[in-house]
Amino acid sequence: MGVDVKIDGLTKSFGKQLIWKDVTLTLPAGEISVMLGPSGTGKSVLLKTLIGLIKPDEGAVVIEGVDIATCSEKDLYEIRKLFGVLFQDGAMFGSMDLFDNVAFPLREHTKKGESEIRDIVMEKMDLVGLIGAENKLPGEISGGMRKRAGLARALVLDPEILLIDEPDSGLDPVRTAFINQLFIDLNAQIDATFLIVTHDINSTRTVPDNIGLLYHKHLAMFGPREMLLSSEEPVVRQFLNAQTIGPIGMSEEKDADELAAEKDMGLPPLPPIPMQLEPSNGIPRTYQRPPGAWCRENGVTPPPGSFQPDPTTPMSSSQANPTEAPH
Ligand SMILES: Nc1ncnc2c1ncn2[C@@H]1O[C@H](COP(=O)(O)OP(=O)(O)OP(=O)(O)O)[C@@H](O)[C@H]1O
Ligand SMILES: [Mg+2]
User: What's the structural domain count of the chain?
Assistant: First the structure.
């Protein structure tokens, strides 16, 4: 399941400030996509445009044949039921406990009775590891717990499309690893179309099926994970490998002299492409492709050492015994 989100020629300015121009991409149904970009490049604005909270100046966002950018308020209200959204700031109601926060979309958008609402809320709280915290106020819990509560709330309406803005900002590495695994397991379970905005390069390299990069007021590239991780395009290469060498400077683009000096130094080799994270819940992901499939199909030689199992993570049974004959 999950639905395609077709973004075509999207352009947005606030007053004289152009945010991005001519953004065109399709979030494939049921796949996990990550959007990257330096701070202020309009990633959050893009998410808000996808749910119709911000109207683009030009272009279309088509979901199930309806253009979010131009449809009626009534159609927009219906289409929004397909979405679950975790905003960057969590956007929890401070005076409501976690239970009521998570129950809010159910009370607002459905006619379900309180006992059914309780079952759904507790199921989602369990999924994000928050059982026992339902009566706490958002101000009484850690940032990581607030993110997970926001995620539980984004899930209660069984979304077809999940938009998640910086789930890992302010999280420690262990919690980030847990939340990444949760996304993979959730995707296996609900098959929704995911778009995750993050600054975490490790998550970007291991979680999604597709990666996009917003840079310099346009979409620099969007495509399968292996395509971007093997790309020699300077901006993509620099961003996805978190390097100082490349066109992106500390505060703005580097000038020609700086770039020429770097060219003489030569670029470090691309690091190996890691294995993609696999589900831990025993449910295979419909759209997870075998390691190296994109590279093979497109005649691209991945960097040496790619697709080796990470020695620090437990191996799945298929990785542990790749040559073992089935019994
Ligand atoms: N409602 C608004 N009115 C005017 N300007 C806005 C509005 N929302 C966002 N902006 C501007 O649009 C630009 C992009 O903002 P956005 O929040 O999308 O960046 P971002 O890529 O999500 O950054 P970060 O990584 O820091 O979260 C910023 O310059 C911001 O000030
Ligand atoms: Mg943002």
Answer: 2
In short, whether 164's Cβ falls inside 6 Å of ligand 1 is no
More confident residue, 231 or 266: 231
- Give the pLDDT score at 260: 67
**pLDDT class of 243 with cuts at 50, 70, 90:** confident
> Closest residue (by CA) to atom 16 of ligand 1?
42
Are 222 and 25 within 8 A, CB to CB? yes
Count other Cβ atoms within 10 Å, centred on residue 29. 17
Residues 3, 119 within the same domain:
no
Whole-number pLDDT of residue 174: 84
Question: 44 CB under 6 A from ligand 1?
Answer: yes
* Same-domain pairing of 135 and 178: no
Q: 196 CA distance to ligand 2 centroid (A)? A: 11
pLDDT in tens, 53-89: 999 999 999 999 999 999 999 999 889 889 999 987 7
The rounded Å distance from CA 269 to ligand 1 centre is: 34
Question: What pLDDT, on the 0 to 100 scale, is given for residue 254?
Answer: 65
Query: How far does the centroid of ligand 1 lie from the alpha carbon of residue 16, in Å?
Result: 14
Of 232, 299, 300, 229, give the one whose Cα is nearest residue 266: 232
> Of the given ranges (79-83, 100-104, 107-111, 175-179), which has the lowest mean pLDDT?
175-179
Instruction: Report which of 130, 128, 131 is spatially closest to residue 178, judged by C-alpha positions.
Output: 128
Region of 116 on the Ramachandran plot (φ > 0 left; ψ -120 to 50 alpha; else beta): alpha
Residue 188 is part of a domain; what is its CATH number?
3.40.50.300
**What is the domain extent for residue 119?**
95-156
Question: Which of 19, 218, 248 to mutate for ligand 1's pocket (most ligand atoms within 8 Å of CB)?
Answer: 19
Ligand with minimal distance to 36 CA: 1
Find the helix or strand (DSSP H, E) in which 152 lies.
helix 143-155
282 token code pair: 């025993």
| pLDDT higher than 60, residue 322 | no
